[in-house]
């Protein structure tokens, strides 16, 4: 199992969710810690990023993270809906 480290942007976005939604996100994070290669590998400028997709209340959310196999650590970058997700993520990074 991998360790989780949340970056400030992820923490800000996570706090905006209701407690029930946070529990769904925690379950998805547990899945990622068990299998860090679960998310889809991106191409181009974000090639080191993986994105895991899941739904909350019929709304698709994307969770961007990076897996460092040497440290066995998952770095959580962002969680949001698809709208402008990759453009915002690229600006942040």
List the helices and strands and how they pair.
Elements: E1 3-6, H1 8-15, H2 19-34, E2 40-41, E3 50-56, E4 59-68, E5 73-81, H3 85-92
Parallel strand pairs: 1-5
Antiparallel strand pairs: 2-3, 3-4, 4-5
Characterize the structure shown.
The chain contains three helices and five strands. The protein has 93 residues and is of the alpha+beta class. It has a single domain (3-92), classed as RelE-like (YaeB-like fold, 2-Layer Sandwich).
Task: Please summarize what this structure is.
The protein is α+β, with helices and mostly antiparallel strands and 93 residues long. The protein contains 3 helices and 5 strands.
List keywords for this structure.
93 residues, alpha+beta
What's the alpha carbon Rg, rounded to whole Å?
12 Å
Unreliable spans: none
Q: What name does CATH use for the topology?
A: YaeB-like fold
Strand line-up across the major sheet: 1-5-4-3-2
Order of helices and strands: EHHEEEEH
Gross geometry: globular
Terminal CA distance reads: 26 Å
């Amino acid at each position: 199992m991998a360790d989780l480290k949340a970056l400030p942007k992820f923490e800000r976005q996570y706090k905006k969710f209701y407690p029930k939604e946070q529990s769904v996100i925690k379950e998805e994070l547990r899945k990622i810690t068990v299998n860090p290669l679960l998310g889809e590998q991106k191409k181009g400028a974000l090639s080191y990023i993986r994105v895991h997709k899941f739904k909350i209340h019929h709304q698709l959310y994307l969770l961007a993270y990076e897996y460092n196999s040497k440290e066995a650590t998952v770095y959580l970058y962002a969680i949001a809906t698809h709208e402008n997700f990759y453009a915002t993520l690229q600006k942040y990074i």
